[in-house]
Amino acid sequence: MISFQKLFGKSDVFYDLLESSASHARQSVQSLHALLSDPSAPQNLDAFTAARREDKKITQQIDEALCKTFVTELEREDIEALANALYKIPKTVEKIAERLLICKDRLAGADFSRQVKLMDAAAEVVLTMVVELRKKLHLERVKVLNEKIQQVEGEADKLMIDCLKALYTSEKDAVLVVILKDLYDLMEKVVDRCRDAGNVVAHIVLKNS
């Protein structure tokens, strides 16, 4: 079991900041779901830009805290790696929202519900893993959660292949094919970013178990 008092000392600052970052990542995916499914949702990038900027501030706060805090067992590189992995999630989601708004007139009838479901599932597991760091996450528990993310990532890969097969074997406008492929790539990348963050948590727990 990890001794987090030794890892972080008496301060909860890293717990708080990392949990906040993971929460913003999950919220960005939920905002994307609202953008795609709720006609009354704001049709702009405000929520996505705010989430990404706030997460960037959190990453900077973590960097500043690391400069002021002596970490004994957990290497500062691990904290930085997790912070950077978490930041890439809302950053990628914002890129998806940008393209959706730019091309919304061409995307009438497009269904991204399966992709959003997988992105949300992956982001939810990441948030759980980060929150449970504060609760002295056990090695077996982190393995179960990490395997769940790997499973979601595998499903996202399969969905990507299925979507590309449908895209390349149907009679669609060439511009629409390019747009959809770009969106499929980015949506799969969000799941990949979540997998990367989960791998960092697993690495931290394994190293200190």
Automatic annotation (TrEMBL):
Recorded coiled-coil stretches: 135-162
Gene3D superfamilies with a match to the protein in the record: Phosphate transport system protein phou homolog 2, domain 2
Top-level lineage group: Bacteria
InterPro entries assigned: PhoU-like_sf (IPR038078), Put_Phosphate_transp_reg (IPR018445), UPF0111_domain (IPR052912)
Keywords from the named record: Coiled coil
Family of the protein in this entry: Belongs to the UPF0111 family.
PANTHER family: UPF0111 PROTEIN YKAA
This protein's name: Pit accessory protein
